[in-house]
Amino acid sequence: MRVSSLLLACVLIPGSAWGQHPRPVLGSAAPPAQVALTPPMGWNSWNFFARRVTDQDIRNAADQLVSTGMKDAGYVYVNIDDTWEGERDAGGELHPNAKFPDMKALADYVHSKGLKLGIYSSPGPRTCAGYAASLGHEVQDAQLYASWGIDYLKYDLCSYREAVMAAEAPADKAAEMRLMIAAYDKMDKALKAAGRPIVYSLCQYGWDAVWEWGPKVGANLWRTTGDIKPNWQSIYSILNQQAGLARYAGPGHWNDPDMLEVGNGNLTLAENRTHFSMWAMLAAPLLAGNDLPNMTPEIRAILTNRDVIAIDQDRLGRQATRAYSDGEVDVWTRHLSGRAMAIAVVNAGPDRFSTHPFHLNLDSLGLKGPQKGKNLWTGDEVTLSNGMPVEIASHDVLLVRIPSPR
Ligand code: GAL
Question: What pTM, to 2 d.p., does this model score?
Answer without folding.
Answer: 0.92
